[in-house]
Give the backbone structure.
Amino acid sequence: MPTLQLPPDLDLHYRVDDFTDPWCESRTILMLHGNAESSASWYGWVPTLARQYRVVRPDMRGFGASTPMPRDFPWTLDLLIDDYSRLMDSLGVERFHLVAAKIGGTIARAFAARRPERVLTLTVAGTPTPFRVGAAERVPALVEEFDQFGVEHWARETMAGRLGSAFPPEGVEWWTKFMGRTAVSTQVGFMGTIACADIRADVPKIACPTLVISTEDSGLATVGETRAWQQMIPDSELLVLPGDSYHVAASDAEECARATLQFIERRDPDG
């Protein structure tokens, strides 16, 4: 994996998948993964997207092959947005389509609102409400769990709601081990900050065409709760898929990827 070195001490790893025709100028999609994941979480999307677009998949700071963060690291949304902006600068990409899942969708919504000149379209799949009631209050218990049992224990205990009742057992085990590799120091700091971030002021400022994907029985929010914040984005659409997973980007990867590709091709302002 290529690496972008960001001072003072971050190695930001990323992947670039580009199977577009070599004689064409390919446009770019930036994909932001969720908590306790990495760029590998997009395995089900890449075959659909990378034939038409150059796909950039970073490992968020602290996660995957990027440098782990200390537990007292001062996490902010603006810092993460800056990481991703500097990555795209290094690749010579000024404007791009932004796709994100889970808490990556919180970062992506803030990104689109705060850097509107860079984001052509936004797609968020299985992302929480702009403010998660009670999330901050649950952090001390989660920190204790991480310190005592590690991240894999938490991932295993919460995986049923994440992937839903129809996901194969072998896949559940893979995702549990995958998320469980996250450094405890990263997870402790991230859960107390980014996972509790309040982006209610950002959502109405999102100016680009936006697609929101959820499921009928998501454990993150009801369809009505999701529609309430989705409708605050002036130019947005809501796609509700059957099922009870809240990580729809994983449980329904191919369908989400196809819907995203169709949305981008239909709504790309530079297309």
Strands lie at 3-6, 10-17, 28-32, 54-58, 96-101, 119-125, 210-215, 236-241. The chain has ten helices and eight strands. The chain has a mean pLDDT of 97.
